[in-house]
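Question thread 4412

I'm putting together a teaching handout and wanted feedback from people who do this every day. The idea is simple: show students a protein as raw sequence, then show them the structure tokens that encode its fold, then repeat with a second protein so they can compare. Below is the first pair exactly as I plan to print it.
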Amino acid sequence: PILFVHSTDDEVIPISEGRRLHQEARGARMFVELHGGHMGAINQSAAILVQAIRTFLSTYGPRPRM
């Protein structure tokens, strides 16, 4: 599984590139849009990022062995 995280405000790598990579990826994948610049998105969108990681791990993370 792949978690794609990209900011709509990224001034270095356009979000269209992130969306393109997501579309071309095979298998399980999830795309999350953040807000903020290339280096500031993690701080500006921290709550969105944390929730996305939680969702991704609960969906695709390891399962307990029986």
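The second pair follows. I'd like the answer to focus on this one:
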Amino acid sequence: MDKRIIPLIFLIGLSLIFSCKVESQRKIQTPTTFPDQVVENTTMFFTVNGVRSAEIRVKHLEKYEKEDFSRGKGIFADIYDRDGKHVSTLQSDSGWIKEKRQELMVMGNVVVKTDQGMILETRSLSWNPKTNKVTTEDFVKITKGKDVITGYGLEADQELKQFTIKKEVKGKIKEVPKEEGNG
């Protein structure tokens, strides 16, 4: 056997051993970016002072325990007032949930429908059940019957009874409410 081939075989062998060892180390190490748990079609409940504030259904949920953070896709929620009475529904393409703090941030085709017939459409929305407030800086469209109000930025109660649109407010009011006592 040629003496020049022996060092070449030795180098090839070392490189194979080294590459196998590196590959096995990659499989063992798990980056912190991987979720601790992945759940399909799950339901979460938020409560404030023992009263249900939300029932959140998620099609796909990735939970990160240390960060108290969950990322969800396909979110649908029933929202309740301080007395536990149903007031609205919320749906979106995706969102983030902080379970311990009970906060929800949703994104993508966000639609909130109140039991009183108001509809809010936007690209993103934050909801805090402890304050019963929803907020966004994105474009919003609020519809009730034939009335439509649009603008950018919103702060509102979760029933949309009281809301503030921050800028570029426009509206089309078709149904003027009758004053009480004047029929």
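Top answer:
Good format. For the second protein you could add a caption like this: The radius of gyration is 26 Å. The first strand starts at residue 37 and ends at 48.
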